[in-house]
Write a structure and sequence with these properties.
- With 290 residues, this protein is α/β, with parallel strands linked by helices.
- The chain folds into two domains: 171 residues, Periplasmic binding protein-like II (D-Maltodextrin-Binding Protein, domain 2); 84 residues, 3-Layer(aba) Sandwich (D-Maltodextrin-Binding Protein, domain 2).
- The chain contains eleven helices and 13 strands.
- The termini are far apart.
- The N terminus and C terminus are likely disordered.
Length: 290
């Protein structure tokens, strides 16, 4: 993934240009269907998540396309480089939002999330000779790449392992391939994407942090300006994709083993008063207001 250093000045000017713009107003399902389009915020150069060019569009874009198709509308993508830009972009969806009630309630973006659709977190990518072992069975001389300052970094260091800090997961995986380190603490998506291009290495995955709420988490569709009807519609589409196996097949195209989410329902980030029956009728949502 490019570091975008030559673009820093241009990016700064772009951010300054929108800095005084107010946050955009709500866009309920009724408005999205009237416009005939739903918009996604995604990074233009971040495979396997998203890409503006090339034959692969990325997991986030392809999943958003399926959601748009299920809603009967087209998908448009607002390409953003930083999360700060999302606040001023005209997008409705932010994919791969971590399902954490407290973080969602405190976040400036005020995202409401769908039901979870994938289980992510931190796993260990190891060489084949270490496959099937638990963390306690690994030699403490093992050189493990970690994201600098991360919780996994601190946990593995306290457990007595030799930790090598990195700034990017793709650099960690390249170091494993080159034999510079023996293992890497990465997300299962990063590991799967790397194994897709280097199956010859036979890298195995260990999941020593499964069940640890701080190092494993569910992902969901974040919706910025949604109403309850959009969230219900997106949840139904996700249920269908999960039940049919289409979502697992999508991840497999990118080399990623599908990991079912731990929970099926989105967290509650606050209660809202029920919509009055006459308001449901006005919006045309009689069936969904029952």
């Amino acid at each position: 993934m490019s570091r975008c250093r030559p673009l820093c000045l241009g990016l700064l000017l772009a951010l300054l240009a929108v800095a005084l713009a107010p946050p955009l107003a709500a866009r309920p399902l009724e408005d999205i269907r009237r416009r005939g389009v739903i918009e996604l915020c995604a990074h233009p150069n971040a495979l396997p998540f998203a890409s503006r060019r090339g034959p692969l569009r990325g997991l986030q874009v392809e999943l958003a396309e399926r959601i748009a198709r299920g809603l009967g509308v087209a998908l448009a993508v607002d390409w953003v480089v930083t999360r700060w830009q999302i606040r001023y972009a005209d997008c409705d969806l932010v994919m791969d939002t971590i399902v954490d009630r407290e973080a969602l309630a405190a976040a400036e973006l005020r995202l409401r999330v769908s039901r979870p659709y994938f289980r992510s977190g931190v796993v260990l990518a190891v060489r084949p000779e270490y496959a099937g072992r638990g963390l306690e069975d690994l030699p403490r001389s093992l050189r493990i790449g970690v994201m600098i300052g991360s919780l996994a970094h601190r946990r593995l260091e306290r457990a007595g392992f030799v930790t090598i800090p990195f700034g990017f997961e793709d650099e960690m995986m390249a170091a494993v391939a080159a034999g510079e380190i023996d293992a890497a603490a990465v997300t299962p998506i990063s590991l799967g994407w790397f194994r897709r291009s280097r199956p010859d290495l036979g890298l195995a995955v260990l999941d020593p942090f499964e069940g640890d709420a701080e190092l494993s988490w569910d992902l969901a569709v974040g919706m910025r300006r949604s109403d309850r009807f959009l969230r219900r519609a997106v949840n139904r589409i996700l249920e269908e994709l999960l039940a049919s196996g289409e979502l697992a097949a999508l991840y497999a195209r990118y080399g990623i083993t599908f990991r079912p989410p731990r929970t099926r329902t989105p967290p509650r980030t606050g209660r809202r008063p029920p919509l009055a029956a006459q308001e449901c009728v006005r919006l045309g949502y009689r069936r969904e207001c029952r």
